[in-house]
Design brief:
The protein is an alpha/beta fold and about 400 residues long. The protein contains ten helices and 22 strands.
Length: about 400
């Protein structure tokens, strides 16, 4: 791969500063240099025109994009991964939840077989939302811990699993958490009404991240009149080892909850996700899903069940959020509007997954880069130094 010199940008650096500079890269970032750095022989030169340059965005929790549901078919998976760089996403965990059962193992094998063929966003592995969950939520499976089934599930996914969501109150869940950590899979906590003791046990066993925090984390019932009960949410916020992520669409979670988590966790402990599904990134309208119902997209990038005869008509059916819109929302909601929203979408998710070579503009990191238009749409997106998206509408 030939060298590229991206001149005259404002780069988001790992310490949060945004500095005028140029960047030289092939598949990796070779150097951050002066704006007027002379080109080397045969080096490709790109004029950044003082645009903002950030690491590629990282989405830890997403079920689909556009008209593509990742677990519907290998074709949908690859089409969705190809679409993501147009929203600035370069690394993603495609999230599976309805196919985590034995009769879907052939589908999981086909999905895993094509995961590395992506010509767009790259994936270190799937995120399995279940099946060891206590609350079904939007169609997720619920079952007690079963290490034999866990091994069969990971095998069906060809060991291409980066994260698995679990609930702390599931019977035998500590053994699952320990097995996941042995296999290099990051346990996420979610879909839970666990007690403080159950939650703490899961954290101590190694489950140190909570996903779509506040969503499917119901408050415990009041036992003593006037005494606010404590549950999983408070324990997760109080433990400094735990990180959390939020659906940043303004519908699933009030921005005040995100600000509270930042106060509790600091700027390194909170992550932005989309939890997106069919309809994300599309204009407001009604769209078919693979699950026998349609969704209405709108109302702050949320998706709701559209069919009037469906028993859940009008209820939330995931988000229609994209990661660049999540950053835009956070920039409006947070008191410090410069680097924190970007860190929540780049460095912080990379840290959760242990991706030391992603999420930051620094020497030897992967050249996963996004050059942004003023309206926070990508102008150009590179994945591993390869230009995978160009906004043809804007010079």
């Amino acid at each position: 791969m030939s060298l590229t010199l991206l001149r005259n940008v404002r780069a988001l650096l790992p310490d949060g500063r945004i500095e005028p500079c140029s960047a030289r890269f092939d598949s990796l970032i070779c150097a951050i240099v002066a704006i007027d750095e002379p080109a080397m022989p045969a080096e490709r030169i790109v004029d950044g025109q003082e645009r903002l340059l950030t690491p590629g965005l990282i989405d830890l929790h997403t079920h689909g994009i556009g008209r593509n549901a990742y677990e519907r078919s290998p074709e949908d998976l690859l089409a969705g991964l190809a679409m993501l760089p147009s929203f600035g996403v370069t690394t993603v965990l495609p999230t599976l939840y309805r196919s985590l059962r034995p009769d879907s193992f052939p589908l999981l094998e086909r999905l895993a077989a094509v995961l590395d063929e992506s010509r767009g966003a790259k994936s270190p592995g799937f995120h399995l939302e279940g099946p060891f969950l206590a609350i079904a939520g939007a169609g997720a499976m619920t079952m007690d811990a079963d290490l034999v089934f866990l091994d069969e599930l990971l095998s069906a996914c060809q060991q291409k699993v980066a994260a698995m969501s679990i609930s702390p109150e599931v019977v035998g869940i500590v053994s699952v958490i320990e097995r996941l950590r042995e296999r290099g899979v990051v346990p996420f906590i979610t879909h839970t009404r666990a007690s403080p003791e159950q939650t703490q046990a899961a954290i101590d066993a190694g489950a140190r991240h909570a996903t779509h925090f506040y969503d499917v984390f119901p408050a415990p019932p009041e036992v003593e009149a006037g005494v606010r009960p404590v549950g999983a949410v408070e324990v997760l916020l109080a433990d400094p080892r735990v990180t959390v992520d939020f659906i940043c669409d303004g519908v699933h979670v009030h921005p005040a909850a995100i600000r509270m988590a930042l106060a509790a966790k600091g700027i390194d402990g909170v992550v932005a996700i989309t939890d997106s599904n069919v309809g994300a990134g599309l204009p407001d309208g009604t769209y078919d899903t693979p699950w026998g119902y349609r969704v209405d997209v709108g109302d702050g990038d949320a998706a709701r069940v559209a069919d009037v005869n469906h028993p859940q008509h009008g209820l939330l059916a995931g988000s229609a959020l994209t990661m660049n819109k999540a950053v835009e929302n956070l920039s409006r909601w947070l008191p410090a509007r410069d680097a924190i929203p970007w860190r929540m979408a780049t460095q912080n998710p990379a840290r959760v997954l242990g991706l030391t070579g992603r999420g930051a503009i620094k020497e030897s990191a992967a050249a996963d880069l996004v050059l942004w238009n003023a309206d926070l749409t990508p102008h150009r997106t590179w994945v591993g130094g390869e230009l995978v998206y160009t906004d043809e509408r804007k010079n």
